[in-house]
Amino acid sequence: MRVGIVCPYTWAVPGGVQEHIRNLAEALIDLGHQVSVISPADDDTPLPGYVVPAGRAVPVPYNGSVGRLAFGFLSASRVRRWVKDGQFDVLHVHEPIVPSLGLLACWVSSGPIVATVHTANPRSRWMLAARPALQSALEKISARIAVSEAARTTQVEHLGGDAVLIPNGVSVRRYEKADPLPGWPGAGGALGFLGRMDESRKGLAVLLAAFEILGAQRAGLRLLVAGPGDTEEVLDKVSAPLRDRVVLLGQVSEADKVRVYHSVDVFCAPNTGGESFGIVLAEAMAAGAPIVASDLDAFRMVLRGGQAGELFAIGDAAELAMAASRLLDDPQRRAELSKAATAAVKVYDWPVIARDVVAVYQTVTLGGIKVGVVA
Amino acid sequence: MTMTSVIIIVGIALLLGVYISWRAGRLDRLHARLEATRAALDVALLRRSSVALELASTGLLDPATSLLLASAAHDARTAADDARELRESDLTRALRAAFGQPEFRASLAGGHGAEELLAEVETASHQVFLARKFHNDAVAATLLARRRWLARLLRLSGGAPLPGFFEIDDSLVAAGPDGQGTDMPHLTG
Description:
Chain A is an alpha/beta fold. In chain A, 39% of the residues lie in helices and 19% in strands. Chain A is built from 14 helices and 17 strands. The longest helix of chain A has 15 residues, at 16-30. Chain A is elongated and about 70 Å long. The two termini of chain A are 25 Å apart. Chain B is mainly α. In chain B, helix 1 packs antiparallel against helix 2 and helix 1 runs antiparallel to helix 5. Chain B is rod-shaped. The chains are: A alpha/beta, B mainly alpha. At the A-B interface, strand 4, helix 2, helix 3 and helix 4 of A face helix 1, helix 2 and helix 3 of B.
């Protein structure tokens, strides 16, 4: 099948949507499909062979923050040319309600269009003002995909009609094997955390409180934290005797991220809410890390009700400390959890997810009409 | 006490009274001017966001640009007082991004009512620029007058709150031949 995928954000900038599209495109190519991705890109960035640059994205305020978006007639005509040349069987746009290439692609094309909504975004009154322009673009979408329940709600509110839920995938083979960081996990044991340090719903504060309890009981235990945020501010919250046993890496490279999962005895996901899926959790599972996670709906589902990782009451540092402590003392249970996690994450592996997406493609192309451009 | 000294004292008191009432009157006039310029600024801002919203809803633009303008205009119009300056600056930036596209005008040429609407957005943006200048002038003059010792001592401005400058990014593309900013800037160069 010839598939055209539209990426709304600059290709080389790290982001969930770009990552999703890269994995999807590569999984589709592995399945034998012909894939072309159009994306905003700066002139000098090297791109994979399947990506077609659509020019630079412009920084512009949108929805309370400054995003880099590609809009306007020039971008639209680039997309149009790409669609015309591509002879696609199906067009797959991402984030169609972000003012960028995805929306423009819907506008200039006809035929089978699949749209994926990633971010949850409550409907706002101003959308009414842009409605004449939006409607002619959005009503052409023949199938909608949402990556989470929250995104599905957004879909229904903005676009009407229902959406198929296909969760984010994780590229299992990229996380399976890696060397631990030098010196980790160490004889005294190690706990791990990955995520923004300064975003309270990621729950680092809960883990730090648990570490106060555990650190006092276990002389050699260390805590490894990776993710963007102010490291000094975090260290200030750790009591003085434990400070040299909390290692803050800050933001790490993709390769080091994988190594972090392999560097700890117990990986903690203390999130306090707002997670629609928990990509970090899925990555840790792919790496085979024994996991202790908050009992959020999304986490419970991914961890198969606690079978593939221990769950503790949301925000309860004492319970987290207890669960982690049990695991630290029980290597056999850790091995069991690791095995269960590796097995459970298989359903989120990209080749599996990509097959679900292909099923959607096949359904919308049943009519036998190809993708074209509108006059 | 002689007659002369009584006359002198009464004279001084009279002069002082006249002076104070003159200062108070001046402050009063400044406050009136302040209110007028602020009202003018509010009207200019409101006019700008309305016409931006209108441009977004015509279907003249591509849907992405429409969406950008509609969201920025709506956010500006409904912003809470403490976020107003930020949101109005965002609207300026969104307008600049839209109008700054290469061939922007050419791409709209021939659209029904396009010329008039673009001109209206230009005018409204320019009015915001001017109204803010005049308002901040009035603020500066009022603050200066209120800082005088007599005004403070006798609380000549009563309970009126201290006025604040209205600070937003309203800079448009200044098309001065020497690269210098001009006072007649436009959204497109």
